[in-house]
């Protein structure tokens, strides 16, 4: 018996099969896309190098000042002549060392102060300076009622150089004199420091301090200027708030260096509350007329005048 063989099936090409010609074209397209993608990545990398260093941090544009001097002027109640003397003093110092000045007016921050004491303006002013000079490394706030008396001293050699700062740092001492139980850390090194400040007989002294640009600086200033602190009736406003946050927040204390008062904050003989060896002596970096604007028996303009004349005389003999 013979059996019929099943009919052969003619192979049918899959409905989506591509011709070899189409596959070749597709490979060419993919190769072109890959080359284009590589080219774009290369361009992106090259452009990024224009703005970032090899460590991934923003590159500093040429001509950027390493130090910005922040001075907050309160024009209410002071003559133009007095203000111009302060400005001239700062401009001379900045020019000598390649620094730049940031002059702010208290009136610029009245909305932010929201009826808080006008002395609070220092905090938003420094924050403003940092935003205006994002590539500068250090911000030196010096109270307007102060004069730089020894302009030959750069901040680098006088304070900021590693060996110099480590020799100045006061370790394991009360943060707020005379006997705060909270003390400065003894293990800190110069590279750990973002905030450099002094104390007088009773408090920390925000009238003269140095702050290093960075995330800590922004955090510190925002925390210091918290609306809760502004609304609280601290007797010495921003000074007592600084005393408080440094003592109770180790994140801040871990970035803090206390240095001797006369290094950046010598008080005039008419200013009360100076630390031991905190009164101005000839040759000191600055003189500060603390309280001359709040004591009705004193005059900032009269106290400034003899020291301003002395400063001008020194300039003439250089």
UniProtKB/TrEMBL annotation:
Coiled coil: none annotated. GO terms for biological process: protein N-linked glycosylation. The keyword Cell cycle does not apply. Keywords: Glycosyltransferase, Membrane, Transferase, Transmembrane, Transmembrane helix. It comes from the Eukaryota. One of its GO terms (cellular component) is mannan polymerase complex. Belongs to the glycosyltransferase 34 family. This is Alpha-1,6-mannosyltransferase subunit.
């Amino acid at each position: 018996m013979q059996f019929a063989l099943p009919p052969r099936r003619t192979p049918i090409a899959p409905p989506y099969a591509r011709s070899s010609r189409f596959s070749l074209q597709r490979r060419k397209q993919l190769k072109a896309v890959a080359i284009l993608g590589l080219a774009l990545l290369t361009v992106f990398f090259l452009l990024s190098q224009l703005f970032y260093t090899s460590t991934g941090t923003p590159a500093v544009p040429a001509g950027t000042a390493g130090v910005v001097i922040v001075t907050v002027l309160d024009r209410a109640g002071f003559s133009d002549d007095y203000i111009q003397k302060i400005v001239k003093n700062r401009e001379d110092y900045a020019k000598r060392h390649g620094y730049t000045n940031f002059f702010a007016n208290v009136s610029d921050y009245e909305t932010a102060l929201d009826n808080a004491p006008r002395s609070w303006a220092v905090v938003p002013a420094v924050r403003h300076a940092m935003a205006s000079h994002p590539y500068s490394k250090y911000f030196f706030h010096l109270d307007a009622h102060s004069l730089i008396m020894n302009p030959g001293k750069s901040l680098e050699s006088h304070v900021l150089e590693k060996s110099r700062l480590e020799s100045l740092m006061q370790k394991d001492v009360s943060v707020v004199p005379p006997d705060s139980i909270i003390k400065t850390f003894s293990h800190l090194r110069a590279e750990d420091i973002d905030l450099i400040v002094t104390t007088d007989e009773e408090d920390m002294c925000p009238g003269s301090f140095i702050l290093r640009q960075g995330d800590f600086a922004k955090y510190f200033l925002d925390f210091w200027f918290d609306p809760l602190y502004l609304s609280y009736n601290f007797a010495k406003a921003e000074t007592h708030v600084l005393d408080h946050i440094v003592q109770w927040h180790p994140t801040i204390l871990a970035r803090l260096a206390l240095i001797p008062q006369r290094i950046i904050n010598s008080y005039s003989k008419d200013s009360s509350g100076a630390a031991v060896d905190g009164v101005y002596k000839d040759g000191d970096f600055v003189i500060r007329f603390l309280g001359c604007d709040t004591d009705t028996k004193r005059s900032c303009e009269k106290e400034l005048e003899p020291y301003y004349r002395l400063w001008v005389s020194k300039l003439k003999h250089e």
